[in-house]
Specification:
The protein contains no helices and six strands. With 89 residues, it is an all-beta fold. A four-stranded antiparallel beta sheet has the order 1-2-3-4, with no helix packed on it. A two-stranded antiparallel sheet has the order 5-6. The protein starts with 15 loop residues before the first strand and ends in a 6-residue tail after the last strand. Bound molecules: zinc ion. Zinc ion binds next to loops.
């Protein structure tokens, strides 16, 4: 399970507008990866940190959550990974 690039214990209440962590499945439906998506107050974009379910490499960047289905492209293997059932927190 991928860890966020910040200390969850040091987050102040209200600092994050959005935070979601979920498992990612590969082609065979196995949960071999995970992703964290978050947005801080004042940020324009959602950021993510991901362990790719296909190549197991970790990557991070920003993701556009305005259009469904939400997709993130792995910077290492270039596969497009769909994020299902993301919910606002
Ligand atoms: Zn990959």
């Amino acid at each position: 399970m991928i860890q966020p690039p910040f200390d969850l214990k040091k987050i102040k209440p209200g600092e994050f507008k959005y935070f979601s962590r979920r498992l990612l499945t590969n082609k065979e439906g196995e949960e071999t990866g995970s992703i964290i998506v978050w947005k801080r107050g004042g940020d324009d974009d959602h950021s993510y940190a991901m362990e790719c379910p296909y190549c197991q490499e970790e990557g991070k960047g920003t993701v556009d959550l305005k259009k469904r289905p939400y997709r993130v492209r792995c910077p290492n293997c270039n596969r497009s990974i769909a994020l299902k059932k993301l919910k606002d927190t």
